[in-house]
Design goal:
Chain lengths: 586, 586
């Protein structure tokens, strides 16, 4: 979606918006951390995020990848920066084509500074941001919403503030849609800037750029380097606390909140955060400004919807990928339309294979490998394994190969049962508690907004031995409301039923709506998911150990011999899925 | 579906089937009554029904109409009789073409007797049933399953029983698929007939035709006329009770049950009932034989599914036509496919108008007009009207122009509220009680088979004055879970919401299935339904009175001034739709 349209929507609602700016990290660990951060911060529902351009350098590729992934996988509207300095026509065109093709509709057009020395540097094809904007409009029409930078304190190269605003006017006249300002700490500068803009005839939104002070050292360095004015009251307030990092951070949050209120008073439509790829101060500012609403608890769907245009109608997903949503998005990227209302048969055969996008690439980064070794240990027996899985259920481990995210809040309802079955050899990788007509705004299991009711059939999915699986199949004969599907790596499968119908396991009933059934269990998708699930034993886990070591061999045998089992308790009113397990109900 | 395939299905299940034979009535009242009976008896789920051919006469047109309507509107598999006596090639071909085109796949091929005198009589194009079968096979291939008559006691024109069976063998060899026998009361005749057939090489199903004795006089006349043998023990049993109609009827039922058990012992795959267009004895026989199962309480969907091939996938209907299902079927006849899973937008604009099929034609029959006048009276004021509607809710009146069937069992849950609002000027024509997770085999509100749960949002639809409608709109502001749509004959409309989404008001959750939502409320269909609903005031009701009489004028004013209002209580857990009405909750 074009940001200008979103800004207008916020205006209509009388609600200030906010946006987050990130830069492309230079290391793989940095990139990995940023992906996790993006994923979490997407939950705060920013109006948009933007990724700065690694001017002329290798990180410009990272900018492209990050922008595309954020747009495709994180449900975010992305504004990609592009700077024309030292960029050839070919690379400019290629960057914009790629952005367009993956659904990005917003570009921040900047001149940029020539990199001091970079082997990627090319002769500039375009020299000024004005020409860049004109060229984009000429070559891409209205495909992109174009933002430009504004300088409340004047651009270092401008003769005067008036000159600087006059130049901004030319950028707007060339086709820019809105302005994001450079950082400032003196609110009166923004006030005067707005007035100058108005006087000269700039009427588009002018979003103030802000950055909560996070560390005294960095703040000092940064403001000195950029020449940004630091009001005397800020210097004085910082002086006595400058050695206490926590106090500086707290002051930075308070100052930013105070500034934000003044900016809104002056008519700022929202706040643009220079996040420096960090999240806690920004989140705190937004919390104190009361701008987060219930976004961290409210969910339109049980899974986060994508912003990609052709996914807008997507209403159903199989449960198997709930803990690997990005993998699901990647494997269904080529779909032309998405299940809307019901799952249906036609989709399942067309799952793509996982491609080599960054987010699915096994890390070679030493720090990350070591971190994994630390949390997953060196399992040499079934009981070593059960301990790892139980820890994950207790929240003591933050991820598993099958679970990109820590265990979800709603699992609180069933955590003791999960720990118990894990310790007894059912290695759970997915589950949901039973829910019968909970309010749709319930903080743990709610989704879809207030006023409705949500339901869930209890679900649990795990790896276990063939013997244990067969024992469950036998026990299930006495519990007709429970259905089980089990399959091993070779595709040998067992089921309590021949019926291959699709089973809706999460649904919601809302006023004036048809029933929404966003999560299903179906045997065809399960057969596809099992390949991915078994591969993860090897790719993510076994790869930590040296070949033919004890742990390497043990994980291999689990991969070869265990079954992946999914269990649904269809009686969401009176059922109890855990009575299936002999360790709980013997 | 071809009956032979259905018979095989029953065989596999080890379950005897039954079928009903009707004849085309000669009067309009008779026809009207037969339609109601067909509708009710369809609920007993016969394997098929058949309609006899009004040989060469005017009633052959009725045979065609009845057959087509039963196939299209009543969810029945129909076998149409055809007799070649005095039928031209043109008329034979036209009858079979029409049958084929409306989905009929079964023909009973008979020679028939030449009518004694009939202005429709034509020279026969085909002389024998053997030639008729050959001609049908030659001209229609395997389009039709073909049945023929068998004569356990020998055909009157046959020289011997052996000759008669030899002739039957020729009919089977010519292409007949199964045999329905002529009536008999001596079971040993059927036994011998089966043996003769087997000996000569007839291996297709041979269904015994039976008829419970319903009146002594008629039984005597009928058996004398046809020459059917009446075993001595039956004569003796009837003699002492012959003047007591009720005793004769009870004896007839018992005898038929006894005969049926003997026939099943001999290997009869099912029973073919010569119903004489009557229902009670036949129903009683089936009940005593325990062949009805739960068919009168079990419902695959809340509405009766049609047997028409392209409607097989139909899973959703708007609620408005629930009491006029045949009208709904007629208006959607031209649809190529049917909403499957969800209602969706695309269907509503294409509702056809009601055509002039018999079942929608206003009756000119005097007896029926008088019956209506008797039950609907001569309303001259609002209070006269409220009394009629309240009587319908109490079950004292069996139909209204908008309700083809008496009030449904499930309404028992809300009958006192309905009566109360009707007496207060809200003239209800449709409603359903609130249901929250009732077992899907609950006798009143269940559907879809056992093992699931069904839900309903409370619904009520009524005519009322503009003032009362506006008062409800005002009261609804305080009950956000209630949505109201109101519209008058001219299309002036009011709504509590601008949202035109489709509202699922009945849904079911079943093991291993997606959610099924068979009934919806949507504003587009409502706008189409309202034309039909307002027309019924004039066509069905006002037409009973002479022009400009007091009742004629009053009904006209109701048609012109009242609003049709639909109300949904979206909170199916804690809501109470009747709190909307000031007369109930003031």
């Amino acid at each position: 979606m074009q940001i200008l349209d979103k800004i207008k929507d916020y205006e209509r609602l009388g609600k200030p918006f906010f946006s987050f700016e990130y830069f492309p990290p230079k290391t793989e660990t940095g990139l990995h951390n940023l992906y996790s951060r993006l994923d979490r911060m997407a939950g705060l529902e920013p109006c948009f995020i933007d990724i700065t351009w690694g001017a002329g350098g290798s990180t410009s590729e990272t900018t492209l990848t990050l922008s595309k992934d954020a747009q495709t996988y994180f449900g975010l509207d992305v504004m990609m920066h592009i700077t024309c300095a030292n960029l050839s026509e070919t690379r400019l065109r290629s960057a914009l084509d790629q952005a367009r093709d993956c659904g990005i509709r917003n570009i921040m057009a900047l001149r940029g500074d020539s990199p001091r020395s970079d082997r990627h540097a090319e002769p500039s094809f375009i020299e000024t941001s004005i020409d860049l904007i004109k060229w984009i409009r000429k070559n891409y029409g209205q495909t992109f919403c174009i933002a430009v930078g504004g300088y409340p304190e004047g651009h270092p190269e401008a003769k005067s503030k008036d000159d600087c605003v006059a130049y901004l006017k030319k950028k707007v006249d060339a086709g820019a849609d809105f302005v994001v300002t450079q950082l400032f700490y003196d609110v009166s500068e923004y006030d005067q800037f707005l007035k100058r803009c108005k006087k000269i005839g700039i009427h588009c939104p002018i979003i103030p750029g802000v950055m909560p002070i996070m560390s005294y050292e960095r703040f000092l360095k940064f403001t000195e380097f950029t020449g940004i004015k630091v009001p005397e009251h800020i210097r004085q307030a910082l002086e006595p606390i400058k050695t206490d990092d926590e106090e500086v951070r707290a002051f930075g949050v308070d100052l930013c909140v105070k500034m934000a209120r003044e900016l809104f008073e002056l008519g700022a439509p929202g706040l643009h955060f220079y996040t420096l790829n960090l999240e806690s101060s920004v989140t705190e500012v937004l919390e104190n400004l009361d701008l987060l609403g219930d976004c961290r608890t409210r969910r339109p769907m049980p899974w986060r919807a994508s912003t990609v245009a052709n996914r807008k109608s997507e209403e159903v997903r199989p449960i198997f990928w709930s803990n690997r949503p990005k993998s699901y998005l990647a494997r269904t990227l080529t779909w032309d339309d998405f299940p809307n209302g019901r799952w249906g048969d036609s989709f399942s055969p067309t799952f793509g294979s996982l491609n080599d996008y960054y987010i699915f690439r096994r890390t070679q980064d030493t720090a990350m490998r070591e971190n994994r070794l630390k949390i997953w240990g060196q399992p040499k027996s079934a009981s070593d394994l059960t301990e790892v899985f139980a820890k994950f259920c207790r929240g003591e481990i933050k991820w598993l190969p099958w679970c990109e995210m820590p265990i979800q809040i709603e699992t609180g309802r069933i955590v003791s049962q999960l720990v118990s079955i894990n310790l007894n050899g059912y290695l759970t990788i997915n589950s949901q508690p039973q829910v019968n007509a909970a309010p749709s705004d319930a903080p743990d299991v709610g989704w879809g907004g207030a006023g409705g009711f949500v339901f869930q059939k209890a679900y649990v999915e795990f790896f276990t031995t063939k013997a244990k699986m067969l024992e469950l199949m036998e026990r299930a004969k006495k519990i007709p409301s429970i259905t089980i599907h089990a399959i091993n790596e070779k595709g040998e499968s067992y089921s309590t039923t021949d019926d291959v119908s699709v089973n809706a396991v999460t649904w919601g009933v809302f006023p004036g709506r048809e029933i929404i059934q966003p999560t299903v269990v179906d045997s065809k998708s399960f057969a596809i998911w099992k390949d991915e699930a078994f591969d993860l034993w090897l790719d993510e886990w076994r790869s930590l150990y040296s070949k033919n070591s004890e742990s390497w061999n043990f994980i291999s045998s689990v991969h070869d011999d265990y079954f992946l089992v999914n269990v649904v308790e269809n009686d969401f009113v009176n059922g109890d899925i855990y009575r299936l397990f002999p360790c709980i109900n013997s």
